[in-house]
Write a structure and sequence with these properties.
Elements lengths: L4 E9 L2 E6 L2 E7 L1 H10 L5 E5 L11 H10 L4 E4 L5 H9 L4 E4 L1 H5 L2 H10 L4 E10 L2 E6 L4 E6 H10 L4 E6 L11 H10 L4 E4 L5 H9 L5 E4 L1 H4 L5 H10 L7
Parallel strand pairs: 1-4, 1-12, 4-5, 5-6, 6-7, 7-10, 10-11, 11-12
Antiparallel strand pairs: 1-2, 2-3, 7-8, 8-9
Length: 251
């Protein structure tokens, strides 16, 4: 059985790590280079680095920051924010990223998924999907959750897989920052529909939530930010707890 992965997420705005609730009310959470190094040392399996304002402000991810983070860590590293072309990805991979995450650009130009998978391999391509429930339907949102679309979460996830994505990062906007647990029902449905790994994001508040999302949500990895940034959950302790719950993790 494949080990389940624990992934701290560094949301970056203006060169600093930030964290909010339901995608708003951001507060500072520290220097991303220092945080990345700490997480690599304390047992994180991977890192995700998202320049959360890059798409909104029409600018590219800070490639130099990616380089500085990559120099400090020895674990896989995914970078997202403002990526809209093969050239963007080329630069980020050269600067040390292992994978890239695309979101708004994938919806606006689905062919980009095919192009990236063809050039760099599916294992490099993570499609992030931010969704919230509107009238009982999980609706995909863009630009850091600000712009609703007509897309259904489950239909879009299936299309993304068919186009060559190697992984999906699903964030429930309803759960983000609430610390009430992940969207396990939606995650379990995604897991049934898809054959590629799914990263659960949005809602981690305690260790039980991680156990629940692996057991009930069938997630392959769990991503969190504030509970790690503000020392509410210690990654080594979390992994020992998961192991005690018979969930396979790398210790």
């Amino acid at each position: 059985m494949l080990t389940k992965r624990i992934i701290p997420c560094l949301d970056i705005k203006n060169g600093r790590t930030v964290k909010g609730v339901n995608f708003v009310d951001l507060r500072d959470a520290g220097d991303p280079v220092e945080l990345a190094a700490k997480y690599a040392e304390t047992g994180a399996d991977e890192l995700v680095f998202l320049d959360i304002s890059a798409t909104e402000e029409r600018r590219k991810t800070l490639a130099d920051l990616v380089l500085r983070v990559a120099e400090k860590i020895n674990i896989p590293f995914t970078v997202g924010g403002g990526i809209s072309s093969v050239e963007d990805v080329d630069i980020l991979l050269q600067n040390g990223a292992d994978k890239v995450s695309i979101n708004s650009s994938a919806v606006k130009n689905p062919q980009l998924i095919n192009d990236l998978a063809a050039k760099f391999g599916s294992q490099c391509v993570v499609v992030a999907i931010d969704a919230k429930q509107i009238n009982g339907k999980w609706t995909v949102h863009l630009v850091g959750g600000k712009v609703p679309t007509e897309l259904d979460l489950f239909e879009w996830a299936q299309e993304v897989e068919q186009r060559g994505a190697g992984e999906i990062l699903f964030t429930s906007m309803d759960h983000d920052g609430t610390k009430n647990g992940f969207a396990d029902e939606a995650l379990a449905k995604l897991s049934k529909l898809l054959n590629i790994p799914i990263i659960a994001s949005g809602g981690a508040g305690n260790m039980q939530h991680f156990t629940d999302t692996f057991k009930n949500g069938k997630a392959d990895a769990a991503l969190a930010a504030s509970v790690f940034h503000f020392h509410e959950i210690d990654i080594p302790e979390l992994k020992h707890e998961l192991k005690n719950q018979n969930i396979p993790v790398r210790i």
